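Researcher: Here's the sequence for the chain we discussed earlier.
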Amino acid sequence: MPKNLAKVQKKIAKKKGNVPSLHENSRDAKRLRRAGARSEKLEKLAAARGRATQPLLPSNSTPIKRTDFLTCPFPSSYLARDSTELSTLQASRRPGRPTTTREDTLKQQRDAEAKEYISGLWLPDMEDPETVEKLKDWSGEWMNLNTLRFVRVKQDETRHASSFPPTGQS
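Model: Thanks. This is the structure I predict for it:
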């Protein structure tokens, strides 16, 4: 039994002849709907896969100077990314009511990320030209990360070398 939409259409056309009309709930109409839904699902998955394989760094990326990284607002803006949703959840809740699950989740996530930022964010070493080149060519696979150099950047702007995968000591 064919699964491809074009094959299903061809098979039905061959069986029915020149009469293109089908009853709404006939077996052939159901086969066509299933094959169409299947092909749409596969197209969506292929599009998502295509978006996921886009390069993570632009091709003209250069190593970042330490002063540029430390002055960039990335950590603080990243930590505050859910603050608007959290404030709307808090405002929409009536006084005396318990917090929602989503609100609890956002607070826990924010606290964990803030704690990690204080102890040190684990990042690729963007000052190293070799690491920047390897990141450009990185396919997004976890097992290829061991070729990169990593550093741990703390909130007080100290930085020290780290290893892959991150452990409590690195």
